[in-house]
Amino acid sequence: MNQRYADVAFEDRMSHVDFRVAEKAHIVVDTDVCRSCTTKACVHACPANLFVPTDDGGILFNYEQCFECGTCYLVCDGGNAISWSYPDGGQGVVFRHG
Ligand code: SF4
Ligand code: SF4
C-alpha cells in the first residue's frame, strides 16, 4: 500500500526552520573546478537553491541557508570541488517542532 505524507505548504515547512549562521563556512566550493564542470548538477539538486551559475561559466555559492542535506556533495561531478562538513555544535540549520 502506498503511503503519503500529508501535504504541507512550503511556507509552513519553512516556518519551522531557523539558520544559526556560523562564521566559518561548513561547505567550501572550489569554483575554479566548477568552471570546467559540464553538468552543474548542484544547481538543480540543491533544495535551497544555494548554487547559482554565473554568465562566465562559474558558480556562486552561499552556505548560510543550507539544510545540511549533503545532496550537493553526492551529485557533484567535479572531483574534489566541494569540501563538506557539519557546522560546529549549536550552529547551522535548526528544525523546530510545534
Ligand atoms: S557539480 Fe560540483 S563541480 Fe559542478 S558546478 Fe556544482 S559544485 Fe562545481
Ligand atoms: S547540503 Fe543540501 S542544502 Fe546545503 S548546499 Fe548542499 S544541497 Fe544545498
UniProtKB/TrEMBL annotation:
The keyword Isomerase does not apply. The keyword Iron applies. One of its GO terms (molecular function) is iron-sulfur cluster binding. PROSITE patterns: 4FE4S_FER_2. Pfam families: Fer4_9. It comes from the Bacteria. Transmembrane segments: none annotated. Keywords: Electron transport, Iron, Iron-sulfur, Metal-binding, Transport. InterPro entries: 4Fe4S_Fe-S-bd, Fd_FixX. This is Ferredoxin.
